[in-house]
Amino acid sequence: MKLFMDKEADALYLRLDDSRIIESEEVSPGVVLDFNERSEVVGVEMLNLSKRVSTVDLSEFQYQNA
Q1: In the chain, domain spans
Q2: What does the pLDDT look like over 6-34, one tens digit per residue?
Q3: Exposure of 45 by Cβ count < 10 A (0-12 exposed, 13-18 middle, 19+ buried)?
């Protein structure tokens, strides 16, 4: 799993695995899901990130393991 943040594009992308992306679908404004050939979600992109959170700072990113 990989997390990418593009400050210039104001976007955050979570890649769940390395399978080939076959299709993408915007499921709500500024949220795009990427699907592989088995119709599984393999990526999640959030656009306009600065409008969704008050500060965009990966040093504040928290990882929780349940």
Answers
A1: 2-51
A2: 889 989 999 999 999 999 999 999 999 99
A3: buried
